[in-house]
Design a protein that fits this description.
There is one protein chain. This protein has 76 residues and is mainly alpha-helical. Helices cover 51% and strands 11% of the residues. The chain has a two-stranded antiparallel ribbon with strand order 1-2. Strand 1 (50-53) and strand 2 form a beta hairpin. The radius of gyration is 15 Å and the shape is globular.
Length: 76
């Protein structure tokens, strides 16, 4: 469910999110994820619904990966 934000808050959040996405760490993880996905696809893996998890170093479900394996994102 999308957040219900005012126009002003939405613009500020968009700017924060973009700044975070452009950090060196996020760029490095994104590039690594792309390399891993391309290599796995080439080997014939079905990757629909999966994200690469940088903690466990393997592909996991999107729900599990983005939810910190059931522990939530506040404890990360």
């Amino acid at each position: 469910m999308p957040q219900k934000l005012s126009t002003q808050a939405r613009a500020k959040k968009r700017a924060r999110d973009l700044a975070y996405a452009k950090t060196t760490d996020r760029k490095r993880k994104k590039a690594e994820n792309q390399r891993k996905r391309r290599a796995a696809k080439k080997r014939g893996f079905k990757l629909a619904g999966l994200d690469y998890d940088h903690k466990t170093k393997k592909f996991t479900s999107i729900k599990s990966n983005r939810g910190n394996r059931g522990r939530g994102t506040k404890r990360e």
